[in-house]
Amino acid sequence: MLRRAISLRALAIIDWRAQCQWAHVAAPPGLGNRFTSDHLNIQSCPEGGLLADVVVRHFLPHTPMRPTVHVDILVPLADNDGRSFDPAHFAAFEAFLAGISGGFTDRGFVDGAWMSPMSGTLVRDRSRSYSITLDAASAVAQIQQLDSYIRQFFRQEAAFLELIPTRATTF
């Protein structure tokens, strides 16, 4: 069984191999020769490659993590009557996302289905998937703005927003 862990403080990518209790360690790009056997107890493994005991060292100062909220957003390509939205709708929405969060990730198109709370019927649609990260302190107000924007400007019965509490080095 192979499990991957990323040590942010040591900047080492570690693949644990249960069968030999050693770890494959890869130096991150740009670390160069600062990532040497002085930092790790490097051994060889019967499977091949370099393996090492995990010895955590601090290569960079600790970056403080701040509470954030990761938000996954689905915006249908058409309204509830089947009328498609033009690219200007999505350009305006993306400007809105950048305004409330400082940026966004456009994850492309997704297909899905949802149960209409009004009619009780299964509705199939194609959506654009976005994600943003918000500062936790202001997330509630921003989520309300986002929900209202999608319902009003994309003429939707409901908006799909999935919120996940996270921690991030930005904000």
Question: What brief labels describe this structure?
Answer:
171 residues; Alpha-Beta Plaits; four-stranded antiparallel sheet; alpha+beta; disordered N terminus; 41% strand; 2 helices; three-stranded antiparallel sheet
Provide the fold topology:
Layout: E1 2-7, E2 12-17, E3 22-26, E4 41-44, E5 50-53, E6 66-76, H1 87-101, E7 105-115, E8 122-135, H2 139-153, E9 160-168
Antiparallel strand pairs: 1-2, 2-3, 4-5, 6-8, 6-9, 7-8
- Tell me the series of helices and strands, N- to C-terminal: EEEEEEHEEHE
- State the CATH topology of the largest domain: Alpha-Beta Plaits
Helicity, as a percent range? 10-25%
Low-confidence stretches: 1-25, 31-44, 48-60
Give the total of beta strands: 9
Rounded mean pLDDT is 75
Q: Biggest sheet: strands side by side, in what order?
A: 7-8-6-9
Global Rg: 23 Å
- Separate helix tally: 2
Backbone shape: elongated
Main sheet: strands, sense, barrel: 4 strands, antiparallel
Tell me the number of structural domains.
Answer: 2
Task: Please state the structural category.
Answer: alpha+beta
Beta-strand level of the residues, as a percent range? 35-45%
Description:
This protein is an alpha+beta fold. The protein has 2 domains: about 1-55, no CATH class; about 65-170, Alpha-Beta Plaits. It has helices spanning about 85-100, 140-155; strands at about 1-5, 10-15, 20-25, 40-45, 50-55, 65-75, 105-115, 120-135, 160-170. It has a 4-stranded antiparallel sheet, with helices on one face. Strands 1-2-3 form a 3-stranded antiparallel sheet, with no helix packed on it. It starts with a strand and ends with a strand.
